[in-house]
Amino acid sequence: MAKKKSILTGKKKSDSASSGGVNELKKELLELRLAISLGQTNSFHKIKELKKAIARVKTSERINLEAISNDK
């Protein structure tokens, strides 16, 4: 199985791609949980990192939406 580049190590996404980033991070989290349950990996620390990354993206989206709504 080829190794995938983690979204955590990638560059920051633009605002338009951030919702896609959440979906990609959630997909990566699901795949990691599946791999752990099947005993293919022991990267338990990555679960915590992915959850924090999802929270960061969602927070930045919320802040951007609040800023846009305050500008109106």
Task: Give the structure's gist in a few sentences.
The protein has 72 residues and is mainly alpha-helical. Helix content is 67%, strand content 0%. The chain starts with 17 loop residues before the first helix and ends with a helix.
How would you sum up this structure, described in words?
This protein is mainly alpha-helical and 72 residues long. It has a single domain (17-71), classed as Orthogonal Bundle (Helix Hairpins), CATH 1.10.287. The protein is built from two helices and no strands. Helix 1 (18-37) packs antiparallel against helix 2 (44-71). It is elongated, with a radius of gyration of 15 Å. 7% of the residues are buried.
